[in-house]
Write a structure and sequence with these properties.
Helix content is 23%, strand content 41%. By secondary structure, it is an alpha+beta fold. Strand 5 (67-82) and strand 6 form a beta hairpin. The relative contact order is 0.26.
């Protein structure tokens, strides 16, 4: 009988967009010249989901002026290997809107792009990121996204 253990990680991220006329542009980050994704990162002691997402977004992009959709809280799960150990990672994404165009990248990323929804679907490296973007776009297209500056923590 063998016992199987997996390490668990949890991160929080932002699907960030800005409105330019009647177009939405989404911010994608290039981690290493070949992996395009959304801003995300691990929580620190005492942080909430929301405060982690806001801190990571500010650290990775310099963007801190944002509105958060109170009715969007999407989770993805995936597996990877780290030092020979299988890790299950869960990432919770918030949908955020900003008027800030300027991005100041941290050393974690080598590039960024503001892209349309269709372009984002082609540029994003991972299917689960594309799936969460589709959900965000559907909510925005429906006109039912509810944004506010200070979002209380979700249960």
């Amino acid at each position: 009988c063998s016992v199987f253990f997996m390490l668990k990680e949890r991160s929080y991220g932002a699907i960030l967009f800005r409105q330019v006329g009647d177009h939405r542009l989404y911010l994608l980050l290039d981690r290493d010249g070949k992996q395009w994704n959304f801003s995300k990162g691990h929580g620190e002691d005492g942080e909430t989901e929301l405060s982690t997402m806001k801190r990571e977004l500010a650290e990775e992009t310099g963007i801190s002026d944002l509105l958060v959709a109170q009715n969007f809280h999407e989770k993805i799960t995936y597996f990877f290997r780290q030092a020979g150990e299988l890790v299950v990672k869960e990432v919770v994404f918030f949908l955020c809107k900003t008027a800030q165009e300027d991005v100041h990248l941290s050393k974690e990323h080598v590039g960024y792009r503001w892209v349309s929804y269709d372009d984002a679907l082609h540029v994003l490296s991972f299917d689960n990121a594309k799936d969460v973007l589709r959900k965000a776009e559907a909510l925005l297209a429906s006109g039912k996204a509810v944004f506010q500056r200070q979002l209380t923590e979700l249960a």
